[in-house]
Amino acid sequence: MKQPKEITKAEGKLGVLLPGLGAVATTTIAGVMLARKNQALPIGSLTQLGTIRLGKRTDNRSPLIREFLPLASLDQLEFGGWDLFPDTAYESAQHAEVLEQRHLDQVRDELSQVTPMKAVFYPEYVKRLHGPHVKTGATKADMVEQVRDDIRTFLKTKGCSRAVAVWCGSTEVYFPPGDVHASIDAFEAGLARNDPGISNSQIYAWACLKERVPYANGAPNLTVDFPAAWDLAKKLEVPIAGKDFKTGQTLMKTIIAPGLKARMLGLSGWFSTNILGNRDGEVLDDPDSFKSKEVSKLGVLEYILQPHMYKELYGKLYHKVRIEFYPPRGDAKEGWDNIDLFGWLGYPMQIKVNFLCRDSILAAPIVLDLALLMDLASRAGFSGTQEWLSFYFKSPMTAPNLYPEHDLFIQSMKLKNTMRWMMGEDLITHLGNEYYD
Ligand SMILES: NC(=O)c1ccc[n+]([C@@H]2O[C@H](COP(=O)([O-])OP(=O)(O)OC[C@H]3O[C@@H](n4cnc5c(N)ncnc54)[C@H](O)[C@@H]3O)[C@@H](O)[C@H]2O)c1
């Protein structure tokens, strides 16, 4: 990334395209609609509520981030998306049962106008879903062209000057990148011959990149995290980011683990389990989709604790993650963590965390922030993997051969320093010597 000389102004309407108009997407859309009518606060959104310190602590300069950065305003956002169910965003939000009817009633008309475009849906990548609202096409290359056409039509009919996309679709089955993902040419050939290594989310991503629409991935599947997508994003100068929104239990893990490590406390075990009853939980009940999630959730502690450097403290850590589909709970997930830790002379202790969270309530502000910051990145001339947005992800994308930074506090510092840097402000190191001269 080069420091921008100038950032293009956020003029005109910004299309926010969400493949997957389910619980997270509709909670985001309804929340933005309520916030712009001043009927609710966008709590959890750093871009809307956060401030950023500039200069010295004695300078008293801490503007709101949305006043410091040239972000699109909530009034400029125009929502669209794709889904294999034809429900409008209003109907889908009712089905998801995240927001109460009193909230949905206030934005019913606007929400009802957000209708999904037909989905690209090859069922082998999400085995638990079957929906009627799907595209047909002889090849995956045709599907890419149809999605590109959807994007152009959306921009034109809604009068948007540009768009960003955030994948809010279901978690796809796990598979690692293969030969078809190795280069742009290999991927394009794979699209033309319907290569089974190319999943639905990759088709949307490829279409977005070709239309120069920045693309962030909220689920753990590959989507834009493979060499061909990195290369295309660089070649066409489009920002990409992922993977898997950092909410609930993993958010807690990346808050607690860095603290224990900072104080050199040891860990022998960390057992995490969840009960969850929404459609996401149903999809994750399929072992192949759960595998994608498990890989994403398990990586976190390994990178934060660095057991290869701290063998006595973390070399024998037993880390286990479970997700149980339990319909009565709906979106109101409950997560338990049992943490076995040890201190001075090896004496054992335990921490129990019982987080009664709401998945989509925690994910919605992330979708909003990513949409605004990815659009900003594009206007600042950034392209390829946006590692500074790791703050929002469970499994952050990085340059090849670079380990991801999972510690929420390092991620937050990196995020804010990138904001300062792009605006030509001094970086903050927290050294603070100057106060004692
Ligand atoms: N809520 C959270 O805290 C959280 C955290 C991290 C990641 N995620 C991920 O975000 C995604 C969305 O979660 P959710 O709770 O909204 O799930 P959801 O099941 O309510 O919504 C997903 C939607 O995607 C649609 N879909 C699936 N495949 C599609 C395709 N190929 N094209 C278009 N639409 C498609 C489904 O029909 C569904 O409506 C999931 O992958 C989930 O794992 C959520």
List keywords for this structure.
single chain, 437 residues, alpha/beta, Rossmann fold, Dihydrodipicolinate Reductase, domain 2, seven-stranded parallel β-sheet, four-stranded mixed β-sheet, 39% helix, globular, binds nicotinamide-adenine-dinucleotide
Describe it:
A 7-stranded parallel beta sheet has the order 3-2-1-4-5-6-11, with helices on both faces. It has a 4-stranded mixed beta sheet with strand order 8-7-9-10. With 437 residues, the protein is of the alpha/beta class. It has 16 helices and 11 strands. The protein has helices at 23-36, 46-49, 65-68, 89-96, 101-106, 108-112, 140-158, 184-192, 200-210, 227-235, 248-262, 279-284, 287-305, 311-314, 359-379, 408-422; strands at residues 13-19, 77-83, 117-118, 160-167, 215-217, 239-241, 266-276, 318-325, 334-342, 348-356, 384-385. The protein folds into 2 domains: 13-245 and 361-422, 3-Layer(aba) Sandwich (Rossmann fold), CATH 3.40.50; 248-356, Dihydrodipicolinate Reductase, domain 2. The protein is globular. The site of nicotinamide-adenine-dinucleotide has 36 residues, from α1, β2, α12 and α15. The site of nicotinamide-adenine-dinucleotide (NAD) has 36 residues, from α1, β2, α12 and α15.
In short:
39% of the residues lie in helices and 16% in strands.
Q: How large is the share of residues in beta strands?
A: 15-25%
> What is the CATH H-level superfamily of the largest domain?
NAD(P)-binding Rossmann-like Domain
Give the oligomeric state of the chains in this entry, treating copies of one chain as homo and distinct chains as hetero. single chain
The top-level CATH class of the largest domain is Alpha Beta
Radius of gyration: 22 Å
The order of strands across the largest sheet is: 3-2-1-4-5-6-11
Count of DSSP-assigned helices = 16
Please provide the count of β strands.
11
User: Which ions and ligands are bound to the chains?
Assistant: nicotinamide-adenine-dinucleotide
Low-confidence stretches: none
Give the overall average pLDDT: 95
Q: How would you describe the shape?
A: globular
How far apart, in Å, are the first and last alpha carbons?
35 Å
Reported for the largest beta sheet, the result is: 7 strands, parallel
CATH architecture of the largest domain: 3-Layer(aba) Sandwich
| Percentage of residues in helical conformation | 25-40%
How many domains in all? 2
List SSEs in N-to-C order: EHHHEHHHEHEHHEHEHEHHHEEEHEH
